[in-house]
């Protein structure tokens, strides 16, 4: 089976079918779920940080998107019809946010691109945020190649703005796109860029560990998951992945401890449900869980 179809299982061993998400199924679950929330937060932050000289443009659509995205999209389109110059940035941003909430990803991508292009060439913070959102919309629309073409310039703008957090997040988005394009080595390089930009970015270490494990680089995976655990000791997904790596490395007791910790940390989570399945399969010689883990991790 192609790597791009198996990598979505990265932390989703035994992943239940039908996970609701705006992102295509060829993306890892832990990216799908966590990035969906992060992307929404990024859109909200951008709505407050993309500069506009006209205070009145802050009213109306942006304040109403969450309550009524359809109406907000209509208001934004009306605003765009009359907007000139930099006013088109916020109107386009507003339209993109509303269309994203409606799940109209291709139209949202176009709105974000138009808003980015309306920003001044030296307004690197706005261009970076809008470009990143356009790339996310392309990913959500199932267009990873197009996402890469948008995320490249966004990364350059983020670096020019000296925004290390956004630089790291964009690198993570690039990894998502590269995974979907079946380019695991390039995805690993993008994750390394994310770690370099933000060394305390726990999710980048977690996903790096998972990708390394999928590539049978268990020594690297172990070092990366240990770093993720240092940064996010209460994250159940980290505990679940740590157990998988330990089991594949022949360390059954370490795997048992990791999976047991997941049950204690987040007993109602999907990670706990999967950990419980693995623990139930642990036999005196550990073969049951080892077989299940290997089946999920098989490239």
Topology:
Layout: H1 3-6, H2 29-49, H3 61-64, H4 69-82, H5 87-101, H6 105-118, H7 124-140, H8 144-160, H9 164-180, H10 184-197, H11 202-214, H12 218-231, H13 236-248, H14 252-265, H15 270-281, H16 287-297
Helix pairs in contact: 2-5, 2-7, 4-5, 5-6, 6-7, 7-8, 7-9, 8-9, 9-10, 10-11, 11-12, 11-13, 12-13, 13-14, 13-15, 14-15, 15-16
Short description:
The chain contains 16 helices and no strands. It is mostly helical. 48% of the residues are buried.
List the main descriptive attributes of the protein structure presented here.
299 residues; Serine Threonine Protein Phosphatase 5, Tetratricopeptide repeat; 16 helices; 0% strand; disordered N terminus
Descriptive notes:
By secondary structure, the protein is mainly α. It has a domain at 3-11 and 27-182: Tetratricopeptide repeat domain (Serine Threonine Protein Phosphatase 5, Tetratricopeptide repeat, Alpha Horseshoe). The chain is built from 16 helices and no strands. It has helices spanning 3-6, 29-49, 61-64, 69-82, 87-101, 105-118, 124-140, 144-160, 164-180, 184-197, 202-214, 218-231, 236-248, 252-265, 270-281, 287-297. Helix 7 packs parallel to helix 9 (164-180) and helix 8 (144-160) packs antiparallel against helix 9. The protein starts with a helix and ends with a helix. Mean pLDDT is 80; it is low at 1-33 and 50-60.
Number of strands: 0
Discrete helix count: 16
The ordered string of helix (H) and strand (E) elements is HHHHHHHHHHHHHHHH
- Residues in helices, as a percent range: over 70%
Second CATH tier, the architecture of the domain at 3-11 and 27-182: Alpha Horseshoe
Which spans of ≥5 residues are poorly predicted at pLDDT below 50?
A: 1-33, 50-60
Give the mean pLDDT. Answer: 80
Counting helices, strands and paired strands, the structural category is: mainly alpha
Terminal-residue CA separation: 7 Å
Give the class-level CATH name of the domain at 3-11 and 27-182.
Mainly Alpha
**Radius of gyration, in angstroms, nearest whole number:** 21 Å
Beta-strand content estimate:
under 5%
Q: What is the CATH T-level topology of the domain at 3-11 and 27-182?
A: Serine Threonine Protein Phosphatase 5, Tetratricopeptide repeat
What characteristic shape results from the CA principal axes?
elongated
């Amino acid at each position: 089976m192609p790597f791009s179809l198996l990598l979505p299982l990265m932390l989703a061993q035994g992943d239940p079918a039908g996970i609701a998400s705006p992102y295509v199924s060829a993306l890892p679950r832990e990216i799908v779920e966590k990035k969906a929330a992060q992307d929404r937060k990024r859109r909200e932050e951008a709505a407050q940080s993309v500069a506009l000289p006209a205070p009145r443009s802050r009213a109306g659509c942006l304040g109403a998107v969450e309550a009524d995205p359809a109406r907000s999209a209509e208001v934004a389109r009306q605003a765009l019809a009359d907007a000139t110059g930099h006013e088109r940035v916020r109107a386009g941003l507003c339209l993109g946010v509303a269309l994203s909430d409606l799940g109209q990803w291709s139209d949202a991508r176009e709105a974000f691109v138009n808003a980015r292009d309306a920003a001044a060439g030296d307004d690197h913070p706005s261009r970076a945020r809008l470009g990143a959102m356009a790339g996310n919309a392309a990913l959500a629309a199932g267009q990873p190649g197009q996402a890469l073409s948008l995320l490249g310039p966004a990364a350059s703008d983020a670096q020019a703005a000296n925004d290390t957090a956004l630089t790291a997040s964009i690198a993570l988005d690039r990894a998502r796109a590269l995974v979907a394009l079946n380019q695991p080595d390039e995805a690993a390089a993008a994750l390394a860029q994310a770690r370099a930009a933000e060394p305390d970015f726990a999710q980048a270490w977690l996903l790096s560990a998972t990708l390394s494990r999928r590539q049978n680089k268990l020594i690297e995976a172990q070092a990366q998951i240990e770093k993720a655990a240092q940064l996010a000791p209460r994250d159940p997904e980290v505990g679940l992945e740590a157990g998988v790596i330990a089991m594949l490395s022949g360390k059954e007791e370490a795997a048992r401890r990791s999976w047991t910790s997941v049950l204690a940390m987040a007993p109602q989570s999907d990670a706990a449900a999967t950990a419980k399945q693995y623990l139930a399969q642990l036999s005196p010689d550990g073969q049951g869980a080892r077989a299940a883990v290997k089946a999920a991790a098989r490239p």
